[in-house]
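User: Sequence in, structure out. Go.
Assistant: Echoing your sequence, followed by the structure tokens.
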Amino acid sequence: MKELSQSAYVKRTQKDYSLSFKLQIVKEIEAGRLEIKECTKKYGIQSHSTVLIWLRKYGSFDWDNQIPNSMQKTPEQRIMELEAEVKLLEKQKALLEREAYIADKKVIFFDMMINIAESEYQIDIRKNSAAVQSITSAEQKKKL
């Protein structure tokens, strides 16, 4: 008889859940991936009110008034967001630098190919710079 009563129901408190777990649940709900009822079943949370408390405490939405929460983020949260943004920007910068390096090499290669073709076939491949327009043609373009 003792075995049945012990495994049937274990009451949990807010201290049983880590802050990162709570934030993960809030993030999933606010992103629209799960609903409150689905979260309680998936993660074994005993009550939907527990999740509602987390949403009110850690979420970015005012569940009472149904408007976005204008609560300021803590400095630690802001620092973490900025650090993540810096890492993302550094990755983007490295990718763009690599692409620019490849583009520069292509320009050098194509320039060499044009030089070789011009010397081999004695033809001008590059366009000449545009001639200076006469005053009358410039005036005609202004009228159009």
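User: And one key feature?
Assistant: Residues 10-71 form one domain.
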